[in-house]
Design goal:
The chain has two domains: 65 residues, no CATH class; 131 residues, no CATH class. The protein is 67% helix and 2% strand. The chain is built from eight helices and two strands; from the N terminus they run ββαααααααα. Strands 1-2 form a two-stranded antiparallel ribbon. α4 crosses α8 and α5 packs antiparallel against α7.
């Protein structure tokens, strides 16, 4: 029969044969396994108390949890680093756009003096942020594609280039980046044309 011994590998053909050094017994039950453990231990050891000893009784959930502990830890580290990287990205975008708005104060003042509305001014700042994020997402796709074989060992049940996953992550990054660009855009909308022209 085909048996999956680890979560990282596909099921492999497996042959079982008697082993005098000990063996595993799997029991399927519809009741609580914890309450059945002592009964199983008693019944198994009652066959031959001198030769048969039950060393350990575990549920299948416990076995799977132990086998996947390393994978879950690595996945948790990846998630933490991803959250940290996203936060740093948003903070960096906020700083860059704030600096850009400060550098374009005179230009924005002239635009507003010539009749540009707040939506137009905000659109200028947000479009600049969107261009930066778009370039970053494009480079991210290139990196993901080039590192497919390295990250595939960290994935279970998901292909490395899953369109839904990549699209969802890209949309999330865009949303967070635009949120980070909102404050500089709001500051740009509040630019006083007269004060801006005086600064020039």
């Amino acid at each position: 029969m085909d048996v999956r011994n680890t979560l990282e590998r596909e099921a492999m053909p497996t042959v079982y044969w008697p082993n005098s050094g000990g063996s595993d017994l799997f029991v399927r039950t519809s009741v609580d396994p914890a309450g059945l453990a002592q009964v199983l231990r008693h019944e198994i050891e009652a066959v031959d108390p001198n030769e048969i000893k039950v060393l350990q009784i575990r549920t299948l959930e416990q076995i799977v949890a132990e086998l996947s502990a390393d994978s879950r830890f690595r996945a948790l580290l990846v998630v933490l680093f991803a959250v940290l990287a996203t936060g740093i990205t948003c903070l960096g975008l906020f700083g860059v756009l704030t600096y850009a708005v400060a550098q374009r104060t005179r230009e924005l003042g002239i635009r507003m003096a010539l009749g540009a509305g707040n939506s137009h001014i905000a659109g200028l700042v947000l479009s600049q942020g969107a261009q930066m994020v778009g370039l970053g997402v494009a480079l991210g796709f290139v990196l993901v594609y080039s590192m497919t074989r390295y990250i595939s060992s960290l994935l279970f049940g998901i292909v490395p280039l899953d369109p839904m996953t990549l699209g969802g992550v890209a949309a999330l990054v865009f949303a967070l980046a635009l949120l980070a660009a909102y404050l500089p855009a709001r500051r740009a909308m509040r630019t006083d044309p007269i004060e801006a022209l005086r600064q020039g």
